[in-house]
Amino acid sequence: MATDVLRAVLDTNVIVAAHLSQSPRSPTLELLNRWRRGEFVLLYSRLIRQEYARKLNALDIEQERVADFLNDILYLGMRVPLRSMQIEAAVMADPDDDVFVACAIVGKATHLVTYDPHIRDLGREYRSVQIVDALHFLYLVRGDKPPLSS
């Protein structure tokens, strides 16, 4: 594997934002489209895919679109097998987020992409994984220089 390949875990809030967006210029929607074109590796675990399914199915999103996304995860994403002992307490304010952090660490992600302030409280980097929002990750995927603030 080339060292410059971006490997990311996308938090549920990024996935939800992409599916709820009404704008074709949405950064989160563009991220999903670029992932589908193979511009970065999307890492997921069984629990993360279940979380995506639960949240997307609870919203007023066309069921075929949700099913297509969940199938794309299976065929285009990279599954990270996680054992419960690998899910450490990292996000004290919201332990449900620990699975995203664990998936990023075990899967050797370059980035954990999130809008969640609880995860972002871990800092800009946690155990060699960069923590960024969707817009900043999109700049990286595009090969653009990101703005100074994060």
Protein model, in words:
The two termini are 28 Å apart. Helix 1 crosses helix 2 and helix 3 runs antiparallel to helix 4. Helices cover 45% and strands 13% of the residues. The protein has a single domain, classed as 5'-nuclease (Rossmann fold, 3-Layer(aba) Sandwich), CATH 3.40.50. With 150 residues, the protein is an alpha/beta fold. The protein has a six-stranded mixed beta sheet, with helices on both faces.
State the end-to-end CA separation. 28 Å
Residue share in helix: 40-55%
Provide the CATH topology. Answer: Rossmann fold
The CATH first-level class comes to Alpha Beta
The count of helical stretches stands at 7
Q: What's the count of strands?
A: 6
State the secondary-structure class. Answer: alpha/beta
SSE diagram, text form:
Elements: E1 7-10, H1 12-20, H2 27-36, E2 41-44, H3 46-58, H4 63-76, E3 78-79, H5 98-106, E4 111-113, H6 117-120, E5 125-126, E6 129-132, H7 134-142
Parallel strand pairs: 1-2, 1-4, 2-3, 4-6
Antiparallel strand pairs: 5-6
Helix pairs in contact: 1-2, 1-3, 2-7, 3-4
Concise summary:
With 150 residues, this protein is α/β, with parallel strands linked by helices.
Descriptors for this entry?
single chain; 150 residues; alpha/beta; Rossmann fold; 6-stranded mixed sheet; 45% helix; globular
